[in-house]
Write a structure and sequence with these properties.
One of its GO terms (molecular function) is tryptophan-tRNA ligase activity. The protein is mostly helical and 331 residues long. It has eleven helices and five strands; from the N terminus they run E-H-E-H-E-H-H-H-H-E-H-E-H-H-H-H. The strands form two sheets. It has a three-stranded parallel sheet with strand order 1-2-3, sandwiched between helices. Strands 4-5 form a two-stranded parallel sheet. Helix 2 links the parallel strand 2 and strand 3. The chain is globular. The structure holds adenosine-5'-triphosphate (ATP) and magnesium ion (MG).
């Protein structure tokens, strides 16, 4: 059977990178694929402490806000099994098992590890930062997912995940795990930071002005667009080699208006026109999401969904883990 699985960390409110790279493609799938296909979306709160612990109340609030954000964007809990990772202890057990099939040197070579470890002094890097991809692999394999829709920044992790599924099957002479396939929508698979366009837009790195969050107010959107990096040339041209910042704004404009670059007539725009037009389009698109989010954020509905879906996901996970424990020799 085809099983779609993806995860998002409750490290903040989703930004336009998450929206175009992950959430919007997910919603398109949710609304178009055969209803028999299982769709699972995990708010991966255990991943959120891989850079170190957070205050408990903050983590709880972040998880609520992420869940509310996803629903506000159009995730339909009757169609997508939307759940909280930490409600499924089986995932951590599988992650431990996968660790026996992986080397530290391979994990330490992953680009995201290399990048994020730079925030720590040499002796201070948390273990979770290194083993993060094992937990991510376990997220997917616990549910025997076959297809993983994610943004382009996850390609290396998906390769590692495929390798682990293969290694497990080979070691134990089984075909228990399908080799999951990455699914990345080519358009807007990577949205760049508004302040440092060589980097991707991110929840947990770069300042608040580097990203537009889906709950930002109209004023904040306008301010962030105005202050987005551009260059000294007055006119707008699309040139990724030499004008990455301006090209990124055009890419965003294309994404938000769902029009291709060739259909946008920016010949008479100044970079300021581009920024103001972009802000207007972003605000139009986000206004209803913002409203829905405010309605949901503190509602009991969110708790109910997480509780109910946690039960459902745990049932699938336990069934699969029983099989895996037997294969490994724990049972
Ligand atoms: P963090 O900085 O805490 O890692 P993040 O912004 O990278 O946060 P994640 O929760 O790690 O977000 O990823 C959620 C999903 O969003 C993944 O599918 C990821 O590939 C996608 N994604 C993240 N950033 C971008 C981006 N800039 N452009 C496109 N997709 C993105
Ligand atoms: Mg990330």
């Amino acid at each position: 059977p085809t099983i779609y699985f993806t995860g998002i960390q409750p490290t903040g409110i989703p930004h336009l990178g998450n929206f175009f790279g992950s959430i919007d493609p997910w919603i398109d799938l949710q609304n178009s694929v055969n209803p028999e296909i299982q769709m699972m979306l995990s708010v991966v709160d255990q991943h959120a402490i891989s850079l170190g612990p957070l205050p408990a109340d903050q983590l709880r609030r972040n998880t609520r806000q992420m869940t509310a954000s996803l629903i506000a964007c159009g995730v339909d809990p009757s169609r997508t099994l939307l759940f909280r990772q930490s409600d499924i202890p089986q995932i951590a057990q599988l992650s431990w098992i996968l660790g026996s099939l992986q080397t530290t040197s391979k994990l330490a070579r992953l680009p995201q590890y290399k990048e994020k470890q730079e925030r720590f002094k040499k002796g201070d890097i948390p273990v979770g930062l290194l083993t993060y991809p094992l937990l991510q692999a376990a997220d997917v394999l616990t549910f025997k997912a076959t297809t993983v829709p994610v943004g382009e920044d996850q390609s290396q992790h998906l390769n590692l995940l495929g390798g682990l599924a293969y290694a497990f099957n080979k070691t134990y002479q089984t075909d228990v795990f399908p080799i999951p396939k990455q699914l990345t929508r080519e358009k807007n698979a990577r949205i760049r930071s508004l302040r440092e366009p060589e980097k991707k837009m991110s929840k947990s790195s770069g300042g608040p002005r580097s990203r537009i969050e889906i709950t930002d107010s109209r004023e904040t959107i306008i301010e962030k667009c105005q202050k987005a990096q551009s260059d000294t040339a007055g006119a707008v041209t699309y040139d990724k080699e030499n004008r990455l910042a301006v090209s990124n704004l055009l890419d965003l404009y294309s994404a938000i208006t769902k029009t291709s670059l060739s259909e946008i007539d920016y010949s008479s725009w100044s970079t300021l026109d581009l920024k103001m037009n972009l802000a207007e389009k972003i605000d139009n698109r986000l206004a209803p999401i913002r409203e829905k989010f405010e309605e949901l954020e503190n509602s009991e509905e969110i708790d109910k969904i997480l509780e109910r879906n946690g039960d459902a996901a745990r049932e699938i996970a336990e069934k699969n883990l029983r099989e895996i424990r037997r294969i490994v020799g724990f049972l």
